[in-house]
Design goal:
Elements: H1 11-22, H2 24-30, H3 34-37, H4 42-51, H5 53-74
Helix pairs in contact: 1-4, 1-5, 4-5
């Protein structure tokens, strides 16, 4: 069993969970990047995050912070 909290999580699942938790507007305030604030979609966000390592790192760090609270939203 891996100790990595991201183990087995695809980038798509991470983005979808964060959008469920925050909503696009709040997510764009947490991490101010255009793909979250200008006509946001999971598809456009994934395209940007896959090409942009610093943004992907920010998303992954935020996801790790909110993991304890996600169960309450995804149930």
């Amino acid at each position: 069993m891996s100790n990595d909290p991201l183990h087995g999580k695809t980038l798509q699942v991470i983005v979808e969970d964060l959008v469920k938790f925050f909503g696009w507007e709040a997510l764009s305030k947490e991490i101010p990047i255009k793909c979250f604030s200008n006509n946001p979609s999971v598809k456009s966000s994934l395209t940007f995050l896959r090409k942009t390592p610093w943004a992907r790192e920010k998303i992954e760090r935020l996801y790790i912070k909110v993991i304890p609270f996600l169960d309450k939203v995804t149930e």
